[in-house]
Design brief:
The structure is a homotetramer.
Chain A (H helix, E strand, L loop, with lengths): L2 H4 L5 H20 L4 H24 L6 H28 L3 H6 L1 H10 L2 H5 L18 H4 L4 H15 L1 H26 L10 H12 L12 H17 L1 H19 L2 E3 L6 E3 L12 H5 L1
Chain lengths: 291, 291, 291, 291
């Protein structure tokens, strides 16, 4: 293995081998977050992403002088170039480049560098680089055995388990918002100059209200509109309880599913309550089998 | 059966039979969401409803040119005519038309087409067509075995089970809102020009506040008013916990009631899981005892 | 009994007896909500209270003409007189008048009629009559066996059980609000004209924010103020979970406490789990005792 | 012991002993909240802190006359001096002064008196004295056996137990806020004059929205911005359920962990309540087996 280094002139096959080894090592660095070198690489990368986000935020401040803006502009180009190189390297080193490109992470990586084209054309669209922040979620891939990661998984599981309930709930919230938005448009309308200028705008108001955000940019002015809004708010008040109940229940189920101690029957492998003496599927004694 | 088609001249009885068969087939199409043809009909209908809602929304935009508005006006008439024909057909094909007309779905169907009269008179009231959106709830009748429908039923059950608690809670929220609204009217009053112009308007403010919506169209200006509002908000903060607790508990009960079915052993009276074959305390067969 | 009516001239003793009987009957009518006549009286009274509240609300509308206002003024005097007579009668018929006057209901009854004096002096303070709405809580005394009343009791119990936790929680919410209000006053201050004119006003803003009401009458304008407000809102977001968790838990405990079947020992009266065979306090057999 | 008082001239050793005794007594008074004298001292101190907070609040009112302000100014100096003396005494009497100074309470005590320097320079920074309010948390040290203190501990425990979950949740809320803030900046931007002047300001808006506070100082004006905001609010509506579920679950676990202590029977190994004397399955004495 190490003999290839001692030779001055390398055969084609040896060159390929060196390249492969380099590619392999790069692959481990860039993709395998569990290895020490991969973790180090990912941490540096995250530092760079956070730094680039700070640059983006400061660069957007209206109080910047042209000179400072120019400095930030250059920093942005440097950072973006690094991310482009990183993306190309990732494609190069992966054994199945298409699979990487079409994976969720691959798409996020691509979307994070695409806005550079807008940067070149001085278009405001280059702020789409903020999508880069999604790459920070990779932190949970780095610290797998961490308490935070476990809890993240637990939260993720609870949310996935309640996805159907939440969807049904959202269906009704949107249905209610459209209905109430339409009614408010009829009673408040364009002529009252209260902001209910169209049905979509009234639906926007209804969503603002039912979610208890309540900006106040659009508010009812007629007596009946206020009455209708009051009913809607009280409804929203009861409705807000539903997603909470859903998630609480799923968390409870997830928590106690894990911990439900069971005794497995030695014969039929059926699960029994931990305090059972006989298997409830085949009637054989449990204690004996376990011992 | 098929012989009736071959004859040129049909007897009165045969005509009635053909009509009956046609009516029966239409009934299945329009009412029986579980049959393939019925499901297909309902899906097309829902597509039409969603399309008509989009037309309604766009038509309300103030930026439309008179020409575009005219086009939308014609589309609306076509769609409305379809829904009128559908409603009349539903009455025609159902064996008990009165029962259909007075059913919840029958009333919603009627309310969805009634606003056409306002459309004829150029009144803004024709936007009441938005009630049409309620017909989309029929989606849960189409996909009965679906996971979404099961969850919808579970949510529905939990809400129905907590209807008494929620009502009592709402009684106290409204009572508190009226009381606080009255007090705020006394201390803020008309003269402060802060929006507390009457007791009903102050109650509206109290509901906006206690539900944590907080539009900000009416806000206290006096020191004592702000103090009273602060107390009310802190109260509302504690109160918001109540409906959540109610719904969470009902969901929990619903979830674990389903699973709580137990089989009691005939010998030792120990409780076993419902799917157990042998008692887990004494090992005797459960099925025999139950029979 | 009925002989007293047949006599023209009554002795002093007989007069007293008649008076006592009349008083007793009135007492049952006015205080005993469970008797048919008492329930009827209370229902009429509640109707009158609700009517008087509607009068109060309408009377406060700024758009009333002087004539209408005058009519409402007279109605108010009539209603108020009825409530004064009712209050005096309640004192007259109760065997321990002082006890009634100092009871919670007695104080509410008194506070409901006191604002009449302000009515006489044309002071706005007469709107304090809105306290009358508290008398509607008596509805739960009338319908004792009702499902609503049971749920009201269950809610009441859960809230009372969590009163210590809620108090501790409120202590910290107020502490946080005062602290954040003070900090916001330092960084936003009077000079920014953003509404943070004094520490109490800043505390009012902090309460508006932490309870997620968010009127928007006072909002941070400086960058650091916005940063501080963001932290506070995220904190408030986590904090809002606490009262919900408290009440949910108490409801859960109340629900499952009721249903926890217990076996009481025949000797020592100690409560045992329902599946216990021997009392866990005195060791005597439970089954025998129960039978 | 008491003989030292009777002597006129004290030896050096005796002087030291008197000083030590005095120091010891002071230490008990100032640090040992459980002793009667310590509790009394702490209660007086808290009264003084609350009084000084009221002075601070009133002093900030813009409507004060110069004379009143001057009076408050003097009161502040007196109060501050007392707190300085108290702090110095605490350092003097504690056996390990450095440990006290670097403890959480020591730092809070120091921060509470430091703003006096700003007071001397007429700087607004002297309002940092509001940090003093944190010293009121000591109330839970005074009333240790109190029901409130127990509940405070229970709440504290539940929050600490859910700190990982809440952190993960906050990570995603902030990530979502930054992402949405960036997108809103692109679509609303500076030119619309709606307040989305920079990315940090848009992130501030996103936090205001996702936490359902909704001040309304910055609101979307473009159609696409309103659409994006609607999606964000609906997301936030589902998200708000998560911390509630977390805390509810932790409270549930804490509650039922406490009660889950069981005594296992030495003979039949059945689980009994911890306070049981006899096993409820076989009737044998539990205490003997445990010993």
């Amino acid at each position: 293995m190490s003999s290839s280094k001692s030779k001055v002139k390398l055969t084609k096959e040896q060159k390929r081998q060196v390249r492969e080894r380099f590619k392999r090592r790069l692959y481990i660095t860039m993709f395998e977050a569990k290895t020490p070198v991969g973790r180090k690489f990912d941490l540096y990368l995250m530092g760079l992403i956070i730094f680039s986000l700070f640059i983006l935020m400061i660069e957007s401040l209206p109080s910047l002088t042209p000179t400072t803006r120019y400095v930030f502009y250059i920093i942005e180009w440097v950072l973006s170039s690094i991310f482009v190189i990183e993306y190309l390297l990732r494609i190069y080193v992966s054994s199945k480049p298409i699979k990487y490109i079409l994976s969720v992470w691959g798409i996020i990586d691509l979307l994070s560098i695409l806005p550079i084209f807008f940067l070149a054309f001085y278009s405001k669209m280059h702020y789409f680089r903020i999508i880069r922040i999604l790459r920070l979620v990779r932190i949970f891939k780095i610290f797998r055995v961490n308490k935070f990661t476990q809890e993240a998984y637990s939260l993720y599981h609870s949310l996935v388990a309640s996805i159907y309930k939440i969807s049904v709930f959202m269906f009704f919230v949107i249905l209610l918002s459209v209905l109430m938005g339409g009614l408010m448009y009829i009673f408040e309308g364009r002529e009252n100059d209260a902001g209910f200028n169209s049905v979509p705008e009234s639906i926007y108001w209804a969503i603002v209200t039912v979610t208890t955000v309540g900006f106040g940019d659009i508010t009812p002015t007629t007596d009946f509109g206020k009455f209708l809004a009051s009913i809607m708010m009280l409804l929203g008040y009861a409705i807000i309880a539903v997603p909470t109940g859903i998630v609480s229940l799923e968390m409870f189920k997830y928590q106690y599913k894990e911990k439900k101690d069971v005794a497995t029957c030695g014969y039929c492998k059926a699960t029994n309550p931990i305090d059972a003496t006989y298997c409830n599927q085949c009637g054989s004694k449990l204690n004996e089998e376990t011992e």
